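The methods section describes the discrete structure representation at length, but only in general terms. An entry of this sort, consisting of the sequence and the corresponding backbone structure tokens, reads as follows.
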Amino acid sequence: MRPSLLDPLFAPAASLSGIGPKNAKLFDRLLGKPEGARVVDVLFHLPYATLDRRARPKIRDAIPDTIVTIEAKVTEHREPPNARSRAPFTVLVEDETGDVELVFFLANHAWVRSRLPVGATRWISGKLERWDGRNQIVHPDRVMDADEFARLPAVEPVYGLTEGLFQRTVARAAEGALKRLPRLPEWIGAETLHLMKLPGFEEALRSMHRPAAPRDVDSAGPAATRLAYDELLANQLALLLVRARMRGLSGRAHVAEGALGRRLEAALPFSLTGAQRKAVEEIRADLKAEKRMIRLLQGDVGSGKTIVALIAMVEVVEAGRQAAMMAPTEVLARQHYERMAPLAEGAGLRIALMTGRDKASERRATLAALASREIDIAVGTHALFQESVAFADLGLAVVDEQHRFGVRQRLALASKGEVADLLVMTATPIPRSLVLAYFGDMDVSALREKPPGRQPIDTRAMPIERLQEVAAGLARALANGARAYWICPLVEESETLDVAAAEDRTAHLRALFGDAVGLVHGRMNGPDKDAAMARFQKGETKILVATTVVEVGVDVPEATIMIVEHAERFGLAQLHQLRGRVGRGAGRSSCLLLYKGPLGEAAQARLETLRETEDGFRIAEEDLRLRGEGDVLGARQAGAPGFRFARLEVHGSLLKRAREEAAAALKRSGRLTGEENRGLRLLLYLFERDEAARLIEAG
């Protein structure tokens, strides 16, 4: 289906000069393409920095600790006494103003003699340093004769590498990829090009791979901005096409009197917040409409998303169909089930739990009950959406904490029912730019209020050297009936990282507190993990040592203390999620961030932000600024867009323009047909938004 014009770019990378069979596997690894890298992957592997070789001074004028390129005569070889010696091979070169020692450790002596024969004039490029009062260049980057120097670029691109690959090999491959680039029509509107002063697509790629100055590879420069805008435009086109496709499918209106929903609300031990009521009304309006609902429900930690989702599922059941909620882990799925079951059953609904750990007989019984409509609401893990699972009539699919799913997965999840409505929930507040980039095909409801009665959390940072004080304070708190989480970054002690391990910390705390200490981590099997959580929930253990398996969703209102060890190693949003495990009951809660100094600038900024605010939306924006979108949203995982050029912390301001331009193009021609839209169709294939491109072909 891909246009033949793009075939040269999607040919195997091994066909490029400088790669070949020998280096092909190294390029596959470098470019993250185990199935085989292509020319376009090499072309889109942009340099991240440059080597500026424009400084070509006389030796006397060369500035130490800078890269210089000097013309000098070879005057002396100072060879080690024998081939086994660890002494360096030193070559003295000079011009009329001074001399420089070229130092080669463990060098091939024959190569040094042949490249730098005494009496020859050579161009040498590398970092000049002062050592013991002498000028030195250790292992020069380049040793060139006059002909080679004539071909030396003044500014060289610096590429990310993998073991076994060299800069010159990648640069040569990039040159070959540039030569395969076909002449492509312009797809950006003239007004945008003029307003943003953007170069052409081909010009931008050439500028990045053949920089004339270091600023040419700057992520905020014209070339990088052009490529980022192209990628964001392709992304927004794809999202809008998928949205139009899903909206175009006839939905099924869920018309219910609301009696079950009202009965459920009346049974709640609390009143809904204003934000929850607004979200419920938005969802109800979607459910009653003939079009399909595709909505993201995002909220801060503890803002009450689960009850909103349950009310939505009850509405669908009252309208005569089934509903399902998928959670990412068995712990969270089981917790959702245990909290929702009494409410659902009190409203007269039949609810069931389904995980990958069910016995074969239980699974068969659940499958039969789903198929015969004996189950109204199913709660489970990804096991719910396997091919073998058939619902009698699924009307609503709720996906919890799976904001990493891409468009393709969202389409698949909702395909379990005849045009089932889809509600995706996340407890990780998402920055505005990321919402547009990743969820532009969805409507968005946000819960920014916390239910009344939620206590503020006293957050403090403390050096890890004060661990004994922390343990003493914990002993006093436990004596007063408190329960505490103690989070460690690793399960076992690491030889390479000086980080406390959960198992070692558990042993240390058990020596102080005995059987009051429990342990839960991701490597434990399911039953053991559930049992450890259950003991903590019942108060049989008072301290739960854990890895980030408790990061999302785990709810023990009696827990009032959160201790995070080596907090400097956690992301900001992750720390906020961990802190959100406390402050869920009536008691005063505290969060202690233990760090090992000295702190880097970013780590210090993270800890200060946590101490200043509990607003998850503000924290999300700061996290984006500090870490970038790939880490904030787990965007490198399968299914997410995985931007190659666009860095939303740098290019987020381009999104609005890209969205408007994509919407205008689709308004002019919903299927992007005609010669005037040929460039946009090519753009979708070029940036591998193939699902969206196929929607165009399918009409």
